[in-house]
Design a protein that fits this description.
single chain; 176 residues; mainly alpha
């Protein structure tokens, strides 16, 4: 048993010698170690900065996409309001936006129809309103003056005299 114990001690000593030899080969000079540590720290800092930039970029992208969706919805609402015949488009748009702010998933067509039914004054006059016509006894002044102007123009063009031309220009200045 003594031989076995001695053998084990020799083997353990050899292992210790091998470990110390490999440890000696793993040792790095202090200056180089400091340089490695600084490079590692700067790399970690760069990684952290890049991660922060990435999160900021993602937040900016999400904000821009939300703004774009809002603008597209506003543009679609504007198109639908103008197609419905909104006379005061800005006021109708503001009222519709206020209603849609309470219920963001509101259908645009339903909102425009509801607005058209409730706020008729925001939309143009309907086809039901009949405009007043002139009575048979009243003469249309513009038609009479227009024909006088046309007669003076043709007379000035045909005769070519200065007096006819001046008369035409005088009529035109008074009417236009």
């Amino acid at each position: 048993m003594n031989a076995d114990e001695t053998n084990e001690q020799v083997t353990a000593t050899n292992r210790d010698a091998d470990d110390s030899a490999t440890d000696a080969s793993k040792l790095v000079p202090i200056g180089e170690s400091i340089r490695y540590r600084r490079r590692a720290q700067s790399a970690e800092k760069q990684a952290q900065d890049l991660a922060e930039q990435l999160t900021q970029a993602n937040e900016t992208i999400s904000q821009i996409s939300q703004d774009l969706k809002g603008l597209q919805r506003d543009q679609e609402l504007t198109r639908k309001l103008s197609a419905a015949g909104a006379a005061d488009l800005e006021a109708a748009l503001l009222v519709a936006k206020a209603r849609m702010k309470d219920q963001p998933e509101t259908d645009l067509n339903a909102c425009v129809e509801q607005l058209k039914n409730e706020k008729r004054h925001l939309f143009g006059p309907s086809a039901e309103i009949v405009t007043q016509r002139r009575t048979a006894g009243a003469k249309d002044r513009t038609a009479h003056n227009q024909t006088a102007l046309e007669r003076a123009a043709t007379k000035a063009a045909q005769s070519g005299t200065r007096a006819d031309l001046q008369h035409y220009l005088k009529l035109r200045r008074n009417l236009v």
